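Design request, C-alpha cells follow.
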C-alpha cells in the first residue's frame, strides 16, 4: 500500500532490492551484517534514544536532543560521502577484496595439492633431485 499507489514510487523497493543483491554478490557475509544492523542494532539505538525523551528530567531531554542532532548530522554526512566523497567505491572495493581472500583461502588446499603435483612432475621431467637430499649433503660435508 505504501509503494503501489504512485507509479514512480514502485521503483524504490525494486532498486533497493537490486542494490542489496549486488552487494551480496560481491560479499557473501553482507546479509548477516545487514540483518544484525537493521533488525538489532538500529532498533536498540532508536529505542534508547526515544527513552531519553520519556524521562521526567530536562537533562535527559536535552541529551536526547543533542544525540538526535549528532545522529542526523552523521546520517547526512554519510549520505554525502556515499554519493560524492567516494565512500561507495571504497566500500565496494573492500567487499570485493574480502570475498576474494575468502575464496582464495577456501581453494588454497586444492591449489597446493595441484602445485605439489606439478612440482613432482617437473622434477621427474628435468631430473632434479629433491631439496631434502641436497640439504642433507650440505650438512654432512
Amino acid at each position: 500500500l505504501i509503494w503501489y499507489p504512485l507509479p514512480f514510487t514502485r521503483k524504490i523497493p525494486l532498486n533497493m532490492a537490486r542494490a542489496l543483491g549486488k552487494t551480496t554478490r560481491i560479499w557473501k557475509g553482507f546479509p548477516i551484517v545487514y540483518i544484525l544492523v537493521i533488525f538489532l542494532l538500529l532498533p536498540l539505538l532508536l529505542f534508547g534514544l526515544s527513552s531519553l525523551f520519556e524521562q521526567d528530567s530536562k537533562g535527559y531531554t536535552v541529551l536526547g536532543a543533542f544525540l538526535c542532532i549528532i545522529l542526523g548530522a552523521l546520517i547526512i554526512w554519510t549520505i554525502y560521502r556515499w554519493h560524492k566523497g567516494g565512500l561507495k567505491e571504497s566500500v565496494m572495493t573492500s567487499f570485493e577484496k574480502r570475498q576474494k581472500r575468502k575464496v582464495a583461502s577456501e581453494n588454497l588446499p586444492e591449489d597446493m595439492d595441484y602445485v605439489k603435483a606439478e612440482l613432482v612432475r617437473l622434477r621427474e621431467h628435468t631430473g632434479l633431485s629433491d631439496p631434502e637430499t641436497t640439504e642433507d649433503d650440505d650438512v654432512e660435508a
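Comment from the thread starter after seeing the answer: thanks! The two ends are 86 Å apart (CA to CA).
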